Amino acid sequence: MEAFTTLTGLVAPLDRVNVDTDQIIPKQFLKTIKRTGLREGLFYDWRKQQDGSQDPLFFLNQARYQAATILITRDNFGCGSSREHAPWALLDQGFRCLIAPSFADIFYNNCFQNGILPIVLKTEEVLPIMKDVLSTEGYRLTVDLGHQTVTTPNGTMYRFEIDPFRKDCLYRGLDSIGLTLQHESAITAYEIRRKSEAPWLFSDIPS
User: What is the CATH number assigned to the segment(s) 6-173?
Assistant: First the structure.
């Protein structure tokens, strides 16, 4: 998993509340277990008009947001099913940071497991940023995980809270597998010892 330390990136706006994971990545895109190639399904239904053509008003169809790495949105983002394809699709699109007043719990946890930083700011902090993003082309924010701050182009700084353990894992680029592999030598030593102590337990396991 790629570490997250600081990020200065273009911001894209999704001015909607209660965005569920079925809208983030619809069910027909869940057949794969790969974490790549999902960007085509990201917000698939909202990107199209009734006649099947691209909706020019939706942010992903606008050239000004194509290189965005930060998504700012509204309350209860990521509600609905627990599909991990949702953060996969967002990451495949290039988003490394999400900012909202609140996130659904399972989605929030899945973001950290996939190298995405979900930041909770107050509604009265999110709304003026959203307004500036919509009115200013090329709007960028600087996110500093170490200092837990979000800084606007005019120097306004917002502080966010984050669990220390999650912060450390994301800062060092460690998911659950990465955390386990830190103890690889101890795991290997245990397996060797157990094979000598109880070889019958391993008789059907290829060496």
Answer: 3.20.19.10
